[in-house]
Amino acid sequence: MKTTLTATYRTLQSRINRSSARLQQYQQIAASGIKLNKPSDDPSAVAPVISAASQIRSGERFASTIASAGLQLDNLDSTMDQLENLMVRARELVLATGNGSLAEGDIDAYAQQMSSLKQELYDIANTRIEGKYLFSGYSTDTMPFPDAGAPDNYQGDANHMELQIGPGQKIVTNLTGAELFQGDGGGTNLLALLGDLEQNLISNDPQAALARLSDLEAGADQVRGLRGKMGIAASRAEEAGVRMLEFTDSMEARLASYREADIVEAYSNLAQQEQALQAALSVTAKVSQLSILDYL
Amino acid sequence: MGLSDVLNMGKTSLATHQTLMEVTGNNIANVNSEGYSRQSVELGTVPALNFRGFQIGRGVTASNILRAQDTFLNRQILDKNSALGEQAAQTTPLAELETLFNLDEDNLSARIDRFFDSWEQLSVTPDGSVERDSVLQNATLLGDAFHAMSNDLGKLSQQLDSTLADSLSGINQKLRQVADLNQRVATVEASGVNANADRDSRDALLEELSYSLGIKSYENKDGSIDVQLQSGLPLVSGNQAFALETVDSASGAVLQVNLGTSARPVDANSLGGEFKGLTTLRDEFIPQLMDNLDQLAYSLATEVNGLHSAGTGLDGSTGQAFFSLAPSSGDNPWSGAAASIETVLTDSRQIAAGQSAATGDNRNALLMAALKDAKVVVGVHSFGTYYASIASDVGLESAQNQLSVSGLEDTMLQMENLRDGKTGVSLEEEMINLIQYQRGFEASAKLLTTVDEMMDTVLSIKR
């Protein structure tokens, strides 16, 4: 076995090639901060990276859905705030008519007030936000209570709109006119009640109006109860938003752990490889210095 | 036997040392020649003569010029070279496949996500025209992504085809050269002289052929070498070479050996080297990827269609498919799905966000958005994870390939160095031989001058 010049240079060249290829790779990693550029860089990381990226996109989408749901629930809540106030005012009005010392003209004025309260109630029931009726179920383009003289005439449907606020997590974001205003399923029909009270006052029968006070209380409870239910939905959405943010953060961290290079490691690899290449180069230079020809 | 005979002996010595110098010089000259094997001179004594009762030698002669060789190493190198060729040929196509099944922000999985995200967005505002348009737009982009990938896979396959076809002429030329060299080696060596240079060039050709084709070779008694494919199909027999050619068929170019009177098809198993690497990619790996991609497109289209046709659009239309797939000729229902998937809907009001035509009905949009994470592809994968499994297959194949290439390169390097250690030219060795032969030459010359002086002495006896 002998050493030939060709073999020596072949070996050195292969080492230098290998070294400089690896050096280039480390330079890229250090410069870009990313160690996973193509699937073959780490095939086992491909599935987690793609799934994490996809979950992050889902998270962003859920976050925007949650924001929309929050906005819708806010609108609903302020409308219901008006409704609650209206119920309080209706009660005060009825109580005031119970005062026996009222003149006939005063009753007329109360009747007019009641009638405008009733109109206001219909307006609230027909609230539109961004062109959509709030209380008509899925039929957001249909006015739920088109006829102020017909409290039983509900044109909307009984559907609840659900929004997805997280994986497998949905919240209801609307109330139907039937449940809120008509007291569907054993509740109080607010529209009919205010219509009756108006009639009582017009026919100058405050006692009949006073007799409906308990109904008025039940109606106000119905409004408060439903408002509370929607409030819970709103806080669920808010919590889901916080959780989604945490989840997205943890997914970002997971993605980074697979994709991004550890800077310290990247730089030390780079330095190490530079040294290796330098060594290979200097050995190559030394080889040519040692020749039998110098001794002949 | 007299002084003149000694002169003659000196002459043979001078001539032989000149030959030694010539061969050494040739070795030094070829120190950097690829595939050159070190040559050495076989020395023989000139038969002795019986003279005055003694056997007296009559000098030296160069009886043959030998070429260093190691058949075992040569065979190993041919073997490993074929394996290296197979892996090295795949590196570039695999890198291209990796750019198709990439991890970018805009890969197929992201497009799929965005399509389903736009349904989720639609569920918030089921009658929004912007949201509806966005669903259609993302569906079109998704279709485009499927088309582009299936198109690129097809192109890559064609490129492999033309690479194979293009390299054929080079290979046929090499086969022809081997046959020519066979002829020359046989002719030269019939006269008892070694055809060293011809054997060197033939070995180099065989190495190249095994890199590209993975051939088997056998040496005959007359010194010629028969070259065969792994299956035993002859490529070179004595001084005759058979050309490889491609014939177009329905499933792409098919390779065959032209045996003159007939042609024999070459199956994939009889190939090695680059050809094996490229045909494996073309006939197995890429079709497999294509099939996976088709399956993904097919599942996506059928699942989305199933949900969509059960829903109702804003315009009251129902039973509408969302995507269309052109029927294809393949064996599986999903064959050709990726290339043909198209959005059927033209009017965004046809999008079935709900199960009724009500403007606020978002039930179907919610179901559609939930489809994103449903395990519906081959029963165990969601669309995203199925894409991930394809991409990681590609990554695995490519990573393994890079590993094999670098391992085989190391092996080749070692074996070439080993072979160089046996058959290569070492300058140190040649230099030392140079000194040795020079001394021998000088000594022979000294012999001649001494004999000359002796002759002078003889002539001066009588004055």
Arithmetic mean of pLDDT of chain A: 90
Proportion of beta-strand residues of chain B: 5-15%
Question: Which regions of chain A have little confidence, pLDDT < 50, spanning 5+ residues?
Answer: none
Number of strands of chain A: 4
Structural class of the helices, strands and pairings of chain A? mainly alpha
* Euclidean distance between termini CA atoms of chain A: 23 Å
Strand adjacency order, main sheet of chain A:
1-2
Structural class of chain B: alpha+beta
Q: What value does the Rg of chain B take, in angstroms?
A: 38 Å
Bin the strand percentage of chain A: under 5%
Give the proportion of residues in helices of chain B.
55-70%
Order of helices and strands of chain B: HEEEEHHHHEEEEEEEHEHEHHH
Mass-distribution shape of chain B: rod-shaped
- The tally of strands of chain B reads 13
The main β sheet of chain A shows up as: 2 strands, antiparallel
Q: Largest interface, with Cβ-Cβ < 8 Å?
A: A-B, 56 and 67 residues
